[in-house]
Amino acid sequence: MLIIPSVDILKGKCVRLTRGQPGSEEVFFQDPLKAALHWENQGAEALHIVDLDGALGQGDNMRHIRRILKEVSIDVEVGGGIRSLEKAIKIYSMGAERVILGSFAFRDPKAVKKLAGEIGGNHVMVALDYKGEMIMVEGWTKTVNANVYDVAAGFEEAGARWILATAVTRDGTLKGADVRVISELVRKVKVMVVASGGVKSLEDVIALKNAGAAGVVIGKALYKGLLSLREAKEAARCWQRGSYPALT
């Protein structure tokens, strides 16, 4: 299971929000490139980059995203404010391993299939933000009358090979991962499921691996030092049912 540090960019800085709410941000790096390089140097195998300004419709951070993609050598997935196929393809051409489609995938039902046809399904990730089991869109302000499992199956059929499942009520709260939904989602689709939201401990990492997640995005817990990237990677790599990894 991949441990994927999150680098969320707001007004050119690396921040973390609570439940995605503007005004709740904590700044951890003045320069998001330094955050990306920090996690790469710590041993990260992939990074999760989110353009919060783009997602909020108040500009973008493409300059910083371009710098990160140029400077790091590990896989990077990029999302936030991608509202056209042209922008998605541009980000892929800049060096992103995975392009994350959010609300755009819901506004244009053919977007995922078209993008998968252009760049390959292995490079397409769809963000499913959910509350309870119901999908949220438009910056988590609107509920779609569909559950996360059915929507994931639909995007799987459209050609996406990655699903990012974010529990919006847990995001940035350090209240623990939503293992139940992730476990059920993994059972219902064959694509790679990456969990996000609420992770606070190695127990969360272990539980998500046991649930079958292909990866987990971790933000605040890493930035606040509640767990180390090394410990999380070791737990994801070595844990076996009924035991904990030996951490030295």
The third-level CATH topology is: TIM Barrel
Gyration radius (Cα, Å) is 17 Å
**Tell me about the biggest sheet?**
8 strands, parallel, barrel
The beta-strand count equals 12
Order of secondary-structure elements: EEEHEHHEHEHHEEEHEHEHEHH
Total number of helical segments? 11
Structural class: alpha/beta
Helix content: 25-40%
Description:
By secondary structure, the chain is of the alpha/beta class. It has a single domain (2-234), classed as TIM Barrel (Alpha-Beta Barrel). It has eleven helices and twelve strands. It has helices at residues 32-41, 52-56, 62-71, 85-93, 103-107, 111-119, 148-158, 179-188, 202-211, 220-223, 229-238; strands at residues 2-10, 13-16, 26-29, 46-51, 75-79, 98-101, 124-131, 134-137, 142-147, 162-167, 192-196, 215-218. It has an eight-stranded parallel β-barrel with strand order 1-4-5-6-7-10-11-12, surrounded by eight helices. Helix 4 (85-93) links the parallel strand 5 and strand 6. The longest helix has 11 residues, at 148-158. The two termini are 20 Å apart.
Features:
alpha/beta, 12 strands, 11 helices, TIM Barrel, 248 residues, single chain, globular, 26% strand
